[in-house]
Amino acid sequence: MHLLTFVTLLGLTWLPGDSGQGLVTKRGRCQQELPLSLRIQSPRTVRRGEPVPIDLVLTNEGRHEVIASLDRSLADSQPAFALIITRLGGAPVWRRPPDPGLPVTKDVHGSRPRAAASGVQVDVRLGPGASYRLRERWRQEDVNGRRVSAGTYVIQGSILVADRLLLAEARAIRIY
Fold first, then answer.
1. Which domains are delineated in the chain?
2. What pTM, to 2 d.p., does this model score?
3. Contact 93, 146 (CB under 8 A)
4. Which residues share a beta bridge with 92?
5. How far apart are CA 64 and CA 170, in angstroms?
6. Which terminus of the chain is less hemmed in, N or C, by CB atoms within 10 Å?
């Protein structure tokens, strides 16, 4: 349910991929699919108040080198990607970027993204089995900057690759 809400917020169309992951396009049609997968890496449990490292890992699952074209804000050091954190069975608590329709830049303080007006495209070469890692730190704050309570949260992530949105399988995290 939340995955479809997430995609709807981006104004894109969700299409199921063969691998069980979703493939989304702005035009609502599939282009030639690159052999890429996207997964979320984060701790399963963290103490309340500790920053949560979250990595989105883009991997070439094919047998040949691929070039992944990624959007990047001129003011950010890494390509634009989206993360949404929700309470288990609840509404979104935090997101990167705060407005899912805009490119993103990161504040030097960690998980306080802001929107940028312009961007560029970056080509990332990935050999067979190679990965590209995108990093974020969630400070366990909601969209209003308030500390979240202990409990179980779900992380969802995505990245645009050549005008297609790859969705990572959601990952649960428990704050104690």
1. 2-175 (2.60.40.2360)
2. 0.71
3. no
4. 86
5. 28
6. N
Angstrom distance (rounded) from CA 83 to CA 152: 16
Beta strand pairing call for 52-60 and 119-126: unpaired
How far apart CA 78 and CA 165 sit, in angstroms, is 17
Using one digit for the tens of pLDDT, what is the confidence trace for 153-172?
Answer: 999 999 989 878 899 999 99
Contacts of 15 (CB under 8 A, 6+ apart): 22, 23, 24, 25, 30
